[in-house]
Specification:
With 407 residues, the protein is an alpha+beta fold. It has nine helices and 20 strands. A hairpin with a 5-residue loop joins strand 18 and strand 19. The longest helix has 13 residues.
Amino acid sequence: MRSTRPSFTVRRRRNARRSTSPVLGAVALVSVLALTATACDSGDTDAGGETRSSAPATADGKITIPDDIKDKLKEHGIDLDKWKNGAWKNWDRDDWLREAQDYVNPIIKGLWDPDRMRKAEDPDRSVDDSDLSGDQGVTDPTPQAVDAKAVPTKYHANAPEAGKVFFDSPEGTMVCSATVVQDPAHPGKSNLVWTAGHCVHAGKGGGWYRNIAFVPSYNDQGLSSEQLQTATKEQAAPYGVWWGDWTKTSDQWIAQGGQTGGDGASYDYAVIHVTPEEGGSGKSLEETVGSALPVNFKAPAVPKVDSITATGYPAAKPYDGQKLYQCQDRPGRFSINAADPTMYRIGCTMTGGSSGGGWVATGSDGKPALVSNTSIGPVKSGWLAGPRLGDVAKGVYDSVSGKFAGR
């Protein structure tokens, strides 16, 4: 993450508000429109059709955009042609697509090329340690730092569910880490990705990020930054680029989240439903990468968890965001706000960019399951904290899964 705050780095994007309903979250409805573009300054090529509709084709074989979809975008001040030509870079609106019904994420083909992915920055967040003094009664002693270990290449052979989430924010092009998770509505054919709430939404006072996309097994061969300067798209994204056509985070994150202080960290998670940029072979994300993790929403309290493994692509120094790392440690308890659920905390030297990366523990059945994601950590590194996943998290997950249950 980018160290733009006090001495505590938060591995997440934005906070959400506390809700009286444990299962309600903010839903982001994405009108997935295939737009042809050559990069971030997309040219003047024609727009494609909505990926989930049977839009009529013109005589020259090009797909037209249904008028109702164009009208929906224009309701939010979005002209499709202008958007693909760079209008998405305008963040001056007072209410830049903040609420559930306001989110649109048109596919811009070619936007996430290897160079743009390589240059994406981490979304670091910081909190001064002094801010935590009032909560030490429910916080265990600071754990000793655990050196992050490089995941052996190819990454797909050792952590097939891991990848990167790329997106654009008012501050620039950003990156987080993420995990392919199972979808109960589509066993063996999941298109769900788990990450942090601050990787999809700016939280309090902000709105949804733009051009959100997931790249599984990013830089699978572990190429250096120098080598990636001339890498092909297949080397950077061996399993393709998958755009978020629906996402949801907690109400708590949207209402409370910010760039400093760690507010909303206990609810800092999000689920993204993705679709392949190029249409793909018809296979789901899970079928494409060959694996997806189950999510444990009843993970035991800290004393009963022997070990947690956190995975991510740390981007802040001394890392450069191009390689995959892991930390393994026994978790302790961590609390920023005594009114919110206590979080897990482990020793780990991963920095910004690892935000959103999955935390995995062995369940009672002896199998690995996702139990958290990286949310926050100190500016100088040394430890990470992640939310425990309970009813609110399950509500977010079930909502996204249920939305696509019949498709």
